[in-house]
C-alpha cells in the first residue's frame, strides 16, 4: 500500500457479477451466482466472507483470482484496472494475488514431492534458481509455514503428510510469489478440528509479518470473529451485512445474520435448536424479487418483496441490506428475529441448514 494513500485498498472489487448460463433440453436462463458485490482488501488486514453453501463465496474468490471471467464489474489492483486479457497479464497478476484452495488433498499433485511443488512455484515467480540459492529459498518457504526442520519435509510426498501439513505446503507454494493478496477459500474446513487453529494462527502471523491482505472465506462465523478484522455476510449471491467482525457477530442487524450467528450451538440454551428460518434457500435461476431473504424473513413486507434493498448504514462502519433500517414510511419493523419466530419444537434446522452429528450446523462447521 502506498505511503501517500494509506487508505487505498490493495485489491478492490467493484459491482462484481457472475451469471452462469443454464443449458439443457427445454431449459434456459442463468444462475445468478454473484450480483453487484463490492469488496476492499487492505494490506495487513483480513476480510471474512461468510455464508451458507451455495451463497456465492467461492465464486467470488475465483473471480478475484481471475480463474473465470466476470459477467460484469471490475477488479482494481493498486488503483488500476487489473482485468486480464492474455496469458502474460495473468502471470503478472498471479504474482500479486494468490489463492489457497479448500482441499489440500486435491490442490497438490500427489505424484511429486514437496521439493518439486515448491521449486516449480519458485521458478515461475522468481526466475530459474539453482544450487544453494534454490535450497535457501526452499528452506525459507518451509520455515515461513512452520514446517521445521525443513529437511524432514522437503523430500516427502503428499501422502506422507497430514492434512494440516499439506495445507501448509499449499500456503508455502502461494508465498513463493511474494504476493500482496491471499484468497483463502475455506482453508480449514477439510482439516481436523484439532489443527484448524494452527492454520489460522499461521495466516495471522503472515498477515502481521508480511502485511498481506487476506480474504478469508468460511462457513464458520465464529472463526471469522477470531481471525478477521471485518466480516461480510453473503446470502443468495448478495452481500446482506458488513462491518467489523466483533460488531457483526455480537450485534447482528440483518435477520439472516442474526440466524446465522445463533445457529452455533449454545450449551446454555439447548432449546435454541428449535428456532430457525422457515423455508429453503431460494433458486438462483429464478431468485425472488426484492430482498432475496424475503420468503424466509418474518419481518418482510410488500416493500421487501418488490425492491432490492441497498446496503444501509446501521452503525459506525457498518451496513445492512435491509429496508428495516431505512427512513421509508413503508419500511418493515425489524427486531430480534428469534423473538418473532419463537420456539418451534421438533424443527431440526437453523437458518435453513441441517444439523450435523457434532451438534453444529452446516453454516457453523
UniProtKB/TrEMBL annotation:
This protein is called: ABC transporter ATP-binding protein
GO terms (BP aspect): peptide transport; transmembrane transport
Question: Listed GO molecular functions?
Answer: ATP binding; ATP hydrolysis activity
Family, per entry: Belongs to the ABC transporter superfamily.
The cross-references to NCBIfam families, in alphabetical order and at most eight, read: oligo_HPY (TIGR01727)
Keywords for this protein: ATP-binding, Nucleotide-binding, Transport
SMART domains reported for this sequence: AAA
Which Pfam families does the entry link to? ABC_tran, oligo_HPY
Does Cell cycle count among this protein's keywords? no
Annotated InterPro entries: AAA+_ATPase, ABC_transp_ATP-bind, ABC_transporter-like_ATP-bd, ABC_transporter-like_CS, Oligopep_ABC_C, P-loop_NTPase
Stretches assigned to the ABC transporter domain: 11-261
